[in-house]
Specification:
30% helix, 16 strands, five-stranded antiparallel sheet, Rossmann fold, five-stranded parallel sheet, alpha/beta, 2 domains, OB fold (Dihydrolipoamide Acetyltransferase, E2P)
């Protein structure tokens, strides 16, 4: 079971999350909290695996609350304002839900958390070794080998849209819609990828440059419809690449 707490100052929002949680068999609701202070009190008495945290609360914002936690559990932010998503990315949140959200969106976010829980359990049991991402043996190869799910899979570079860091893991987002998770640091993955095809745009994100369609206001737009944050530290390098390769398009 995944023990969870929902934090939101709006009673109707809490009631909706409570209803959604009740529809997922492996979620156990520990508490409904109307403030960050109430959640902190509950967490001081028992362990929690997952927090559903509203961003905009009167006593303390959800982002500030999570940032102050010593050992935060998995986080799924809920917010009515899409601009707060970037703050969630910076804190390695599992996902964020934009209000009002349907059960299908809620379930997809929980699926991400469930995958992360399973990977951690496998690691703790030593059933999953530390993954190593390596270019395929053939120097002319257009693939990378990824160790995950008890096997090594060859993933074509062209099929990778972007890669995100999720704590000790990385998640590959593929053109097929599949999401592949493996125990690996993002910096190790970055060193294994061809630098002329992939670029780090954020401390938690690498993009496949062939899937980039544009950028604006601290975000990179991808042909899959996804957006990933573009941080100040990587912005100049990214802009130089775009201006050099696509001077008339972007």
């Amino acid at each position: 079971m995944i023990k969870c707490i929902a934090i939101d100052d709006e009673p109707l929002a809490l009631r909706q999350i409570e209803t959604y949680i009740s529809r997922v068999a492996d979620l156990q609701l520990v508490a409904l909290c109307h403030s960050a202070a109430a959640a902190a009190s509950v967490m001081g008495e028992q362990s929690v695996d997952l927090l559903f945290v509203d961003v905009n609360m009167p006593d303390k914002s959800g982002v500030d609350f999570v940032r102050e936690l010593q050992n935060p559990p998995m986080i799924i932010f809920t917010t009515a304002y899409s601009e707060y998503a970037i703050d969630g990315f910076r804190l390695d949140a599992v996902d964020y839900l934009l209000k009002p959200f349907a059960f299908a969106e809620f379930e997809r976010a929980v699926d991400k958390a469930r995958s992360l829980v399973e990977l951690r359990r496998l690691r703790d049991k030593k059933d999953l070794s530390i993954a190593e991402a390596e270019p395929a043996d053939n120097a002319a190869s257009d693939s990378i080998s990824i160790r995950a799910d008890y096997k090594v899979s060859l993933v074509k570079y062209a099929d990778i849209i972007f890669i995100e860091s999720v704590g000790e893991y990385i998640r590959l987002h593929l053109t097929s819609g599949q999401r592949m998770m493996t125990l690996l640091r993002l910096k190790n993955m970055e060193s294994a990828l061809p630098a002329d095809r992939f670029m780090r745009v954020h401390r938690s994100y690498i993009v496949n440059l062939s899937h980039v369609t544009g950028y604006a206001r601290g975000e990179v737009f991808l042909d899959s419809g996804d957006r990933v944050p573009l941080s100040v530290n990587y912005r100049d390098t990214f802009r130089e690449y775009i201006d050099r390769k696509h001077p008339s398009q972007m």
